Amino acid sequence: MSKTSNVAVVGAGLVGSLLSIYLKKRGYQVTVFERRPDMRRKGYEGGRSINLALSNRGIRALEEIGLAEPLKQVAIPMHGRVMHDRKGNLTFQPYGKEGQFINSVSRSGLNIVLMDEAEKLGVKFLFEQRVEKIDVENTAIIFPTEKKQFDLIIGADGAFSAVRGSLQITDRFDYSQDYIDHGYKELSIPAGAGARLPAGQAGFQIEKNALHIWPRESFMLIALPNPDGSFTCTLFFPFEGKTSFEKLKTDADVKQFFQETFPDALRLMPDLLEDYNSNPTSSLVTVTCYPWVRNNTLLIGDAAHAIVPFFGQGMNAGFEDCRILHELLDKHQDDWSIALSEFQEQRKPDADAIAQLALDNFIEMRDLVADAEFLLRKKIEAKLHELFPDKWIPLYSMVTFHDSMRYSEAYQIGKRQRKIMDEAMKTPGIETNWGSLDFEEIVSRLK
């Protein structure tokens, strides 16, 4: 492919828009096709995860295209988790060391910034363009009324990718999708002008610089802050069963459930019933497939590896895809055949690793964050990291703050550390004597 090559990106979401900027900066002609209307004119579809956690991997990609600083200005740092028990008691768990944090960002706000920047560079966006299928052999997109040929087609069209749908019917294409038993519904806590919080927290009814979690063993409620003082809340809840979406049939059911289960949150949610009834109940799916490349058609982001949101890495992993592809094109001087082959071989193990980590973290968030033994483990791990910062790094920190470490590497190290901690936790009287553990001996077992 020459620098005048014509590249089609299917999907104008976060990953597709970011990738179009990378490609345009490399000198390619780029056209982005999007099934939905232009959100800048029609508005963003509410009720579907409008907040995202932007962390180091995503920021690193944004830095490369020059957009990290302006986006940081409208992001809200979250330094840790605030746990809410049934009585309204709060417990704070920092995400990492002093100065380490993740960022609450608006999905639509970030998407608009990326689209505007791409258009400024000369990327062409075409909206309300429904892809019927891909002619993989001829690198062409078939729309309802026409067929367009390109030199390269990149499917960045999400978990239910139309591009991937065409690859699935090609020979020896592996694909699976796994839904968890839980769905999610978006709710909200509005800003409160009279809220009594410290300076800089005005309008925020609960702590501004934290991700709030109401863990309830088999389900949970979370809340992320918005710049206007509101919080976007998400209820992760089973679809069926004794305590589930199917059991909350009336407004009275919903109100009683929240009163019994999230009483301190309910007091801050005057629009609960309106939000609950108007916002959809959505499913959560993990998608795996391989290969990601067929001829001159590539899958990237959620189209290749959709994951559940419980590690806050879906967008960050997609942005990292774009950065890695860009690095490989540099390495191979824009020889796409070599770069694409290396890209899928390198990223597939990392995609599988973060998919598993996201599922594991759901159990941690809903079941363990309020568990005494789990909290003790976290204390011990924090002490190990303090004493041996280069040898023992907590799994969350490896994934979230160490963007030069591959997901697959973090996953393997995390498994070894968990086995070592399992043994350490068997120490008699550890609840009161954990400070006298032989921390150096514990770290030595990592070798």
**Number of individual domains:** 3
> With helices defined by DSSP (H or I, 4 residues minimum), what is the helix count?
17
List unreliable stretches of 5+ residues: none
Biggest β-sheet description: 7 strands, mixed
Care to count the β-strands? 19
Distance between the termini: 46 Å
Structural class: alpha/beta
Q: Tell me the radius of gyration.
A: 23 Å
CATH architecture of the largest domain: 3-Layer(bba) Sandwich
Q: What overall form do the CA principal axes indicate?
A: globular
Share of helix, binned:
40-55%
CATH class of the largest domain: Alpha Beta
In what order do the strands lie side by side in the largest sheet?
6-5-14-15-16-13-17
CATH third-tier fold name of the largest domain: FAD/NAD(P)-binding domain
Keywords:
7-stranded mixed β-sheet; Alpha-Beta Plaits; 447 residues; 6-stranded mixed β-sheet; FAD/NAD(P)-binding domain; alpha/beta
Concise synopsis of the structure shown:
The chain is of the alpha/beta class. The protein has helices at 14-25, 39-42, 56-64, 68-73, 107-121, 162-167, 251-261, 263-266, 272-278, 302-305, 314-331, 336-368, 372-387, 395-400, 407-424, 430-433, 439-444; strands spanning 6-10, 29-33, 51-54, 76-78, 80-84, 90-94, 102-106, 124-126, 133-135, 140-142, 147-149, 152-155, 174-189, 211-215, 220-225, 231-238, 282-290, 293-294, 297-299.
Describe the 3D structure.
With 447 residues, the protein is of the alpha/beta class. It folds into three domains: 6-77 and 104-177 and 285-361, 3-Layer(bba) Sandwich (FAD/NAD(P)-binding domain), CATH 3.50.50; 181-283, Alpha-Beta Plaits (2-Layer Sandwich); 371-444, no CATH class. The protein is 40% helix and 22% strand. It has helices at 14-25, 39-42, 56-64, 68-73, 107-121, 162-167, 251-261, 263-266, 272-278, 302-305, 314-331, 336-368, 372-387, 395-400, 407-424, 430-433, 439-444; strands at 6-10, 29-33, 51-54, 76-78, 80-84, 90-94, 102-106, 124-126, 133-135, 140-142, 147-149, 152-155, 174-189, 211-215, 220-225, 231-238, 282-290, 293-294, 297-299. The strands form four sheets. It has a seven-stranded mixed sheet with strand order 6-5-14-15-16-13-17. A six-stranded mixed sheet has the order 8-2-1-12-19-18. Strands 3-7-4 form a three-stranded antiparallel sheet. Strand 10 and strand 11 form a beta hairpin. The protein is globular and about 65 Å long.
